[in-house]
């Protein structure tokens, strides 16, 4: 997501798969040890600054309990048009989220709660992109793969998109090459980078958020009463 203090593309600009985007991305590539590029951290910091005024709202929403969540983030239907329902997590489930980010991301209720938190930080697109990549990996039809890859590019990679995720220039270059012949793995490098960003940057704050603490308290009280 581009913030207001960053230069905007000219009205006639169009997204490109041939490497045009990479010259406009000045963020550094990750090091050998997998460090998140500074550009990603700066973008996430600006989003967090915008989210301060949302804390009271998110706290109030969390206190409504686990049964009133209206999002479809629990499944891999990343278009959010499905009618699936997310199972209520157990107290053991919620405790396990604090032990491992992988456990959080592999449970439907965990993804749902984490996405709710990301929304308060204006970084929900990170989860949406990750889920879109998971959905793409399950596709076998070549035509469908090409169409889904195009939509993912337009929604989350293009510099013209309001939901653009923060990626370094190296990964963008890989994507632009892969888009010449899209496959289920076109966005693998980008998905890993966003997963790592959520793990290192957003996950620790989620564990200290009102959303997680209130969910834990609600389930603890329910378990004690039963």
Largest sheet: none
Low-pLDDT runs of 5+ residues are: 9-16, 18-38, 51-83
Helix content percent band: 55-70%
The total of helices stands at: 10
- Rg result: 18 Å
* Count of individual beta strands: 0
> Based on CA inertia axes, which overall geometry fits?
elongated
Determine the mean pLDDT: 77
Keywords: Cytoplasm, Glycoprotein, Membrane, Nucleus, Signal transduction inhibitor, Ubl conjugation
Region (Disordered): 1-39, 46-65
Biased composition (Polar residues): 51-65
Main location: cytoplasm
Can you offer a commentary on this structure?
The chain has 226 residues and is mainly α. The chain is 55% helix and 0% strand. The chain contains ten helices and no strands. It has helices at residues 38-50, 55-62, 91-99, 101-106, 108-120, 124-137, 142-157, 169-178, 188-207, 210-225. The radius of gyration is 18 Å and the shape is elongated. The model is unreliable at 9-16, 18-38 and 51-83 (pLDDT under 50).
């Amino acid at each position: 997501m581009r913030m207001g203090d960053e230069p905007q593309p000219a009205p006639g600009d169009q997204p490109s798969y041939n490497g045009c985007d990479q010259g406009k991305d000045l963020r550094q590539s990750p090091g050998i040890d997998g460090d998140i590029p500074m550009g990603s951290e700066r973008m996430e910091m600006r989003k967090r600054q915008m989210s301060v005024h949302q804390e009271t709202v998110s706290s109030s929403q969390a206190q409504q309990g686990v049964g009133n969540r209206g999002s479809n983030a629990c499944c891999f239907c990343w278009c959010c048009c499905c009618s699936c329902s997310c199972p209520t997590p157990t107290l053991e489930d919620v405790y396990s989220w604090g032990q491992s980010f992988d456990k959080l991301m592999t449970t439907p209720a965990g993804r749902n709660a984490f996405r709710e938190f990301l929304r308060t930080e204006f970084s929900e697109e990170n989860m949406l992109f990750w889920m879109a990549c998971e959905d793409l990996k399950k596709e076998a039809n070549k035509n469908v793969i090409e169409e889904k890859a195009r939509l993912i590019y337009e929604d989350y990679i293009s510099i013209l998109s309001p939901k653009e995720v923060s990626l370094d220039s190296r990964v963008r270059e890989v994507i632009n090459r892969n888009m010449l012949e899209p496959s289920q793995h076109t966005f693998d490098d980008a998905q890993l980078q966003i997963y790592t960003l959520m793990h290192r940057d957003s996950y620790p704050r989620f564990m200290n958020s009102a959303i997680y603490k209130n969910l834990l308290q609600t389930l603890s009280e329910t378990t004690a009463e039963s």
